[in-house]
Amino acid sequence: MVGGGPAGMVLGLLLARSGVQVTVLERHGDFLRDFRGDTVHPSTLSLLDQLGLGPRFAALPQRRVSTIQLPTGPGGPMFTVGDLRVLRPPYNYIAMVPQWDLLNLLADEARREPTFSLCMNADATGFLYERGRVTGVRYQTADGTTRDLRATLTVACDGRGSLARELPELRLRTFACPIDAWWFRLPRREDDPQGMVGSAADRFLTVMIDRGAYWQCATLIPKGTDSERRAAGLERFMAEFAAVVPWLADRTQALRSWDEVRLLDVRLDRLRRWHRPGLLCIGDAAHAMSPVFGIGINLAVEDAVAAARYLAEPLRAGTVGLREVRAVQRRRWPTTAATQALQRLVHARVIEPVMAGRRAFGAGPDETRSPRLVRVLTTAPWLRRVPAYFLAYGALRERPPAASLR
After folding, report:
1. What is the overall mean pLDDT for the chain?
2. Pairing of strands 275-276, 172-174
3. pLDDT grade, residue 96 (50/70/90)?
């Protein structure tokens, strides 16, 4: 596995527990990187319980969120897209957990398996080939040493910058994305709101994630306007932010320079083919997601679970081929395509109108108006479960290989 993110670590753990010899290459020396996806949805919570890791995960510092909301426009109410409280407990919430804590938990558990190896500071630089088949990767260590690692199957779990995305035969398909995001921190106090908080104003959208000691803040900006907006000055931006979130106004001085504001280049795309002989792509390497709904980490984990179920036995037997890797894409494509279609709809009907100073969903000045479908989904009790279940588990619920459940 190239990449020690959620997809790589989950797949590595599941395969190692199933008796497969696994090596995960992670380019960094640790998992402590800020501004990563931190929403752990019911699909992942259920998996952790099945793996016997539920109590250890529950002991991690976390906040719980039960509803996913979108703004309707400046000064308007928040629209509840999914209310997970309609689902059966115990998996009827989203856990907000720093991703490095989740990855450390998975790594600690995987290291208990004799067939698992995790190589940190291992930067994959290219694929190895033999007779047109990918047979492993070449990587560089922290001291500059170059090494080759050969494998029956190489799985690209290395995100949007994956080496695999440079292969023309996989054919990357991109979708228009109207936004980028600024990430930064502000101090949090005990009497602040908890969980995930969103606010909207005229041409301004922000979401804040409760980290306990601080807020991890994301402000959406129109695609490609980073330089222009920075040139207008940090004080102007913080004044705009304080106007939208007035209860944080007295803490905006904590942001001292633009160096503390990171740009996330938001992308929405997917490979038409996730595989070639000897290679499989999953997670963001196969499909980069918008931050809408914070669902990317869980799609990556579900990719890994499906891949483990299809690949564990053939890998043990040494018979894995194109048939098995093709099956992974066929299984995971419906959820990926449906989620991206929903994110594109939110971009077009919610984010773009709000950032242009208009109401979401095409509503007029009367903020109580909303499309008929929205009213039905949010008022019919039996239909409220549909968006909640989709956001919790996707179009298809994945089950890990039986051999990994011990």
Report:
1. 89
2. unpaired
3. confident
**What is the token pair recorded at 28?**
């960094």
Which pLDDT score is estimated for 360? 62
31 and 94 belong to one structural domain: yes
Residue 63's pLDDT band (cuts 50, 70, 90): confident
Which residues does 214 contact at the CB level (< 8 Å), separation at least 6? Answer: 185, 186, 187, 188
Read off the pLDDT of each residue in 231-241 and give the average, rounded to a whole number: 94
Contact predicate 118/76, CB 8 Å:
no
State the helix-helix crossing angle for 6-17 and 99-110, rounded to 10 degrees: 20
Residue 83 resides in a domain: no
DSSP, res 2: B
Count of the separate structural domains present in the chain: 2
Buried/exposed 358-384: b ≥16 CB within 10 Å, e otherwise: bbbbebeeeeeebeeebeebbeeeeeb
Residues 127 and 250 reside in one and the same domain: no
Residue 404 CA to residue 406 CA, distance in Å, equals 6
pLDDT, residue 366, reads: 47
Q: In the prediction, which pLDDT does 379 show?
A: 60
**Is 396 within the bounds of a domain?**
no
- What whole-number percentage of the chain has pLDDT above 90? 63
Q: How far is CA 376 from CA 67, 373, 387, in A?
A: 17, 5, 12
Judge if 111 and 95 occupy the same domain: yes
- pLDDT for 174 beyond 60: yes
Q: How far apart are CA 109 and CA 121, in angstroms?
A: 20
Task: Kindly list the distances between the CA atom of residue 21 and the CA atoms of 12, 110, 248, 340, in Å, as whole numbers in the listed order.
Answer: 9, 12, 50, 34
Q: Under a CB-based contact definition with an 8 Å cutoff, are residues 93 and 196 in contact?
A: no
CA distances from 88 to 42, 44, 167 (A): 10, 15, 43
Residue 369 has pLDDT above 80, yes or no: no
Within a domain: residue 192? yes
Q: How far apart are CA 262 and CA 295, in angstroms?
A: 21
Domain of 275: which CATH number? Answer: 3.50.50.60
